[in-house]
Amino acid sequence: MSDTNSVYQAYQGNTYLFGGNAPYVEEMYENYLDNPGSVPDTWRAYFDALQNVPALDGSNAKDVPHLPVVNAFAERAKQGGTKVVVASGADSELGRKRTAVQQLIAAYRNVGARWADLDPLKRQERPEIPELDPAFYGFADADQETVFNTSNTFFGKESMPLRELLNALRETYCGTLGAEYMYTAEQNQKRWWQQKLETIRSKPAYNADQKKRILDRLTAAEGLERFLHTKYVGQKRFSLEGGESFIVAMDQLINAAGVTGVQEIVIGMAHRGRLNVLVNTLGKMPKDLFAEFDHTAPEELTAGDVKYHQGFSSDVSTIGGPVHLSLAFNPSHLEIVNPVVEGSVRSRMDRRNDPQGKQVLPVLVHGDAAFAGQGVNQETLALSETRGYTTGGTVHIIINNQIGFTTSDPRDLRSTTYCTDIVKMIDSPVLHVNGDDPEAVALAMQMALDFRMEFSKDIVVDIICYRKLGHNEQDTPALTQPLMYKKIAQHPGTRKLYADKLATQGLGETLGDDMVKAYRAAMDAGKHTVDPVLTNFKSQYAVDWSPFLNKKWTDSADTAIPVAEWKRLAERVTTLPDSVNPHQLVKKVYDDRAAMGRGDINVDWGMGETMAYASLVASGYPIRLSGEDSGRGTFTHRHSVVHDQKREKWDEGTYIPLQNVADNQAPFTVIDSILSEEAVLGFEYGYASNDPNTLVIWEAQFGDFANGAQVVIDQFIASGEVKWGRVNGLTLMLPHGYEGQGPEHSSARLERFMQLSADQNMQVTQPTTAAQIFHLLRRQMVRPLRKPLIIMTPKSLLRNKDATSPVSEFTSGGFQTVIGERNEAIVAAADKVKRVIACSGKVYYDLVKKRTEEGSTDVAIIRVEQLYPFPHKAFAAELKKYSNAKDIVWCQDEPQNQGAWFFVQHYIHENMLDGQKLGYSGRAPSASPAVGYSHLHQEQQKALVEGAFGKLKGFVLTK
């Protein structure tokens, strides 16, 4: 015996893989092949590594359990031979089994993902799902080689032995990619997924260059985090470590999207991994990021924001051509950016005349806990397939770190099986994928994009990974997650695992280390890590915001229109085709408006608003108006959509006069939204943030309902410009007025907007006449200033004749921030005025009525129509007319702790003359916006009006 043989025999006798251990190891390997989670972690890691070794034929085919094959042939031998039998429908037992095979196939398609190998930490045991076990259908080992018809699958064979079919099903649906799609109602979509998945058994076939690209992106993802971790110790950055495959996903998505013809991708995401995306996906210069850590970056904004909330845009080159990438600015309120992104995408689609969204792609990145827990996701999903809000399908990516925030018990995470289950409400498919298999992640992204482009529907890729560090870098997650973080501490990292796999496949032993060194060198030099980033490319669809920057709210605007234009437009918006048969009430509205257009009667609010829209679209300004009941108007004052009362089909028979103003007019779009405030307002903010040339209006059904969208108001509308430099001209119409309708239908919470007003950030107004709303809406577009416009719109004033205006006030003048005393006799005897009442809104008409009843001639009433920015110059000019007045009274409908009182008192005081006293008349402080008892409302209203004319009480401020 040679020395070599002696050594080999000794090795066989001593290594744990041979000798007496061989049967034990073989049995354990069989168990692993059947259920990887059934063996100890050390053995699982060893067997996992074996799967990376190419098969003898050079393919990446995985090993399959041997024991069922052996048992099947043994059973055949007992029964008289091993001849393969083809199932025949004539045999009742075989017929039953044939049906059972179809049930088995359906089971794997439906719930096979529950057995998928998805957890990189390998913590969870495989659940008991009897319908995935052949024994559930009565199959025994003897049936393994029985051949069944498989023509309804896409495994490439008309018939297959049960053993081979079972292996194919498990490879396809129980590997590192688990698909959920069978709940969709559309059969063609189900078959599409079956063909996509089963044809390749959910396994990609990437070439060497593609694999190196994947490793390069993993290296970049890990490299940036490790660089920042050592250079900026303890600073918050919300590391992506443990989820590096997300950068692979983004790289695959962007390049594949470019090939399909996508030219813009708008991304919304929270803070986890955001810095990584900025540098490694969008191409932000690392040195610019380092400057933010070093506090040497320019600080040009009034307030600014932390670095992991910042947005960015760039143009990158793909095989299909340049693609513009936009990462939306995002506050810490998780998921609230989602509808904002969707609105931005819809705006870009409209600008490109791309109704199917083939050129613009929304991508939303979520955390697992936030996706399941935040209600704005449900609202945004509900918008996805409605006419006014569809964006052609969104690609959702979940960075699923399996921990949420710091939740220590999975039973407290959610009430659903998966964090993605919410998307089943709109039949969106979900691809769950193991983050430790970056090739599967890339494949999932390619399939997701293909599905979105084919069916224009939302799709979710759930990357199941882990979070190496705490919620932030100052957190100690082991405090609440000791077991998980023991596992994480032992994990070598996705990049290392993949580099080792490629080395095993012969792509180079030092390939991984070489890439790490190259990336570190780029970091040290502060160079680009995305190549190529296009620096001189500009799309023809890019928006020029420069005309709207550095403007002042005091800049003038010519908002009146010529008499001839008024008449022409009035005729167009009040003329209905003979084919349209309006309701008699609507016909009267249009007949009255025709008379208003001719000047026969004064113009009411509805006509004034309509004429503002008509004049704007005729001048080339598109209008987008949305909200609950916006077509008709909550209080039936608008009727911008006329419904034919004799129509025979539900989806026909509407006419929109404002779409027929002129031959080459701009679009007028009015949308009755779903019953949502938060997502719809976020959507409209996003739309306006990308289009300064469109008048974008969101109208609340009642002003109180804006409560449901308070996060959008606080984090975007009020502060977006000072935090991020984002200019936005969104208009909010909020019905407001105390008319006895109770706590939830009276107040638009004016005080909240006043509290948020600073730094010239927005305009808060309360117009009281038809002419005022006309000029205000026109001013929002004609004046080159883009600031959010908050309008406290009326209810009863919509039909109050005192609030109407003659045509002359539309063909001359403009929006008046302050309206002085209208009684000419009082103005003429200004030196005899002893009291000036300042007010805003509907209460003005109550005060005038009371003064008329009392016959008072020594009280002047001033209306403040713009509360912020406060019109000091105009207000002071009016107040100065009454220099002999001793008392100034602010009168309001709202309780004293609400409304404008606390915010305007110092403005009024600033403009008073020495010796004048300032008092308040209004409702007493209240925890509720309004009372619900009708008689109490009337008593309060009477008292506050009388108090405005009576002796000063309570708080009095003397100058």
The span between the termini is: 116 Å
Mean pLDDT: 90
User: Which percent band covers the strand fraction?
Assistant: 5-15%
Shape: elongated
Uncertain residue ranges: 1-18, 81-85
Instruction: Work out the number of β strands.
Output: 26
Give, in spatial order, the strands making up the sheet with the most strands.
Answer: 3-9-10-8-7-4-6-5-11
Query: Could you estimate the helical fraction of the residues in percent?
Result: 25-40%
Main beta sheet = 9 strands, mixed
Which structural class do the helices and strands define? Answer: alpha/beta
Q: Gyration radius, to the nearest Å?
A: 35 Å
Helix segment tally: 31
Task: Please tell me about this protein's structure.
The protein has 959 residues and is α/β, with parallel strands linked by helices. Helix content is 39%, strand content 13%. It has 31 helices and 26 strands. Helix 5 runs parallel beside helix 6, helix 8 (208-231) packs across helix 18 and helix 19 crosses helix 21.
Topology readout:
Layout: H1 3-14, H2 22-34, H3 41-50, H4 67-78, H5 92-111, E1 147-149, E2 159-161, H6 162-173, E3 177-180, H7 187-200, H8 208-231, H9 245-260, E4 264-269, H10 274-280, H11 286-294, E5 312-318, E6 321-327, H12 337-352, E7 360-367, H13 368-373, H14 375-383, E8 395-400, E9 430-434, H15 438-455, E10 459-464, H16 482-490, H17 494-504, H18 511-525, E11 533-534, H19 563-574, H20 584-598, H21 605-618, E12 623-627, E13 642-643, E14 654-655, E15 668-672, H22 678-689, E16 695-699, H23 710-717, H24 720-724, E17 731-735, H25 750-756, E18 763-765, H26 770-782, E19 789-793, E20 818-819, H27 824-828, E21 835-839, H28 843-854, E22 859-864, E23 866-868, H29 872-880, E24 887-895, H30 901-911, E25 917-923, H31 934-949, E26 957-958
